[in-house]
């Protein structure tokens, strides 16, 4: 019986809303845009945060990354004459880390050299990464084909290399790369394995966030080629010469990067502090920089939380404005329909029947607005992703949330006009013209 | 719903439907108390056709509101169908007037956005009568007042007389104890007015209890019994036939 009444009241509500189509549409627009903006804002915020978190997580949340940076005083002196600069992380640092820090699981020293790789008559700019066999433990890349470096490669300075998939496409159009010789610098190296490409953004973004004057990592290289660290040390040396307008600069850097991996997340920050102390003792110049992805991750999450709150509040305000619009219109409707209310009361409508009638109209408006808003709000992130190149994620909870909010807005802003309608004196409202 | 089940309200032994006992209604106007009705005693029996007359300010409207359960008396008792309705709360009064009172207003008071059929259905809706039943009943009533062919018209598409006939049909929807008509011909031309009075006469012949409130002696002539109000009191009453 109750359901039957609900059904008829809703039917009545639809009828009176339909009677004032333009007014109803305009009123619902407030809710539509409110809900759509909640969804869109949350989707954009969520997308941005997932993107940042993914990038940071790719660096490895258990890793501590120590990087060589050009010390600031050298930068000032540079560019005048032919100067030899010697700075950065050394093999000794790596050794010291291994000997003095108990929590360390893996240490990966890395040497990077910008080079060009040849296969037959093709040439691509690449970055040579001199590393150790356990590199994969600290890196997001994974083996696709063949093998990675071995202890044997390290100890006997083998002429082998592992290339990443990006280079495969550039160099080996039709050949199977494994087993083929690739010329890097003056020598040939046999390809023994293929790995997935290093996500470029991941390496760059934490540096940007820290605003470090970090050395540019050969931005235009086509990909990475992994060689045994020992081989790289022998073949490419530690000097690099950079020409500039005023002169040449010679740099001597032993290691570009040392990645330290600890056993669990609780050890990350204490280990970072120990590393910091160790490096301060042995390095006079600030020629290193410590990056902790975990810390970045936490920062990013924190930033994200604030971001979400701000975006959410802005969207909530628009929803609130929509709600006030609805209340305004419903109050106008109630006073316009005073006589109808009087008639209905005379014909046996109880107060709660009247409340129900007007509340159902408001709820119909807000729910219809909510549904349209969800549709609109779900398409906005699509366009943002498509044209604005920003990742967006629509979560089910944001849909539920905004729909719930629009319902709550309907009840909150519909109750008062409905209450006003119900509490009109039937005698007065019958006389109303 | 609470009230709709007790179709068999007890009638007091002599068939009285409406009984007033020393009914008073006061209005507080600032510091002054206006006595709109003063100790009115009245009995209306089933099948009565009563006209309440009186100049403006005599308390007609107040009496109408109380009979129609739109208002409560300040003092005294009002029994409708044997039930004391003088101190019921708003909810109960709403149910009583929906169930037992059929209103016919001077200005028709149809709901503009509903068609004829839906207008007649409104009182049944609030009594919780299922749609298929109420639709059938509404159709029957539309036929009764001669509007069987216009059930899908909106009030704005009907003449005044037709609108008033819809209102009468609506008043009969729940088979009320009394049909309460407030100047039913006041907004009509004389021909339409005559038609309406004929319908009311016919209802009387069918045994309905009618109360008409009017200031027009010619209309009151149709009734069986007349009451003249003056200053909130029954000045005189008499039977026409």
Summarize the structure in short.
The complex is a heterodimer of chains A (433) and B (241). Chain A is an alpha+beta fold.
Account of the 3D structure:
The complex is a heterodimer of chains A (433) and B (241). Chain A is α+β, with helices and mostly antiparallel strands. Chain A folds into two domains: 2-55 and 300-431, no CATH class; 111-252, no CATH class. Chain A is 56% helix and 19% strand. Chain A has 14 helices and 13 strands. In chain A, the strands form two sheets. Chain A has a six-stranded mixed beta barrel. A three-stranded mixed β-sheet of chain A has the order 2-11-10, with no helix packed on it. In chain A, α2 (21-58) crosses α7 and α2 packs antiparallel against α10 (293-336). Chain A starts with a helix and ends with a helix. Mean pLDDT of chain A is 83; it is low at 201-218. Chain B is globular. Chain B is 32% helix and 28% strand. Chain B contains seven helices and ten strands. With 241 residues, chain B is of the alpha/beta class. In chain B, the strands form two sheets. A six-stranded mixed β-sheet of chain B has the order 6-7-8-3-9-10, with helices on both faces. Chain B has a four-stranded antiparallel β-sheet with strand order 2-1-4-5, with helices on one face. Chain B has a single domain (46-73, 85-239), classed as Rossmann fold. The chains are: A alpha+beta (433), B alpha/beta (241). The interface between A and B is medium-sized, with 24 and 29 residues.
Draw up the topology in text.
The complex is a heterodimer of chains A (433) and B (241).
Chain A: H1 2-19, H2 21-58, E1 63-68, H3 72-77, E2 83-86, H4 91-100, E3 104-119, E4 122-131, E5 143-146, H5 151-155, E6 160-164, H6 165-171, E7 181-184, E8 187-195, H7 200-210, E9 224-228, H8 229-236, E10 239-243, E11 248-252, E12 257-262, H9 268-282, E13 288-291, H10 293-336, H11 338-346, H12 351-388, H13 396-422, H14 426-431
Parallel strand pairs in A: 2-11, 4-9, 6-8
Antiparallel strand pairs in A: 1-12, 1-13, 3-4, 3-7, 3-12, 5-8, 6-9, 7-8, 10-11
Chain B: E1 16-29, E2 32-45, E3 49-53, H1 60-67, E4 75-80, E5 83-84, H2 90-100, E6 101-104, H3 116-126, H4 131-144, H5 160-171, E7 178-182, H6 190-205, E8 209-213, H7 217-220, E9 225-230, E10 233-239
Parallel strand pairs in B: 3-8, 3-9, 6-7, 7-8
Antiparallel strand pairs in B: 1-2, 1-4, 4-5, 9-10
Helix pairs in contact in B: 3-4, 3-5, 4-5, 5-6
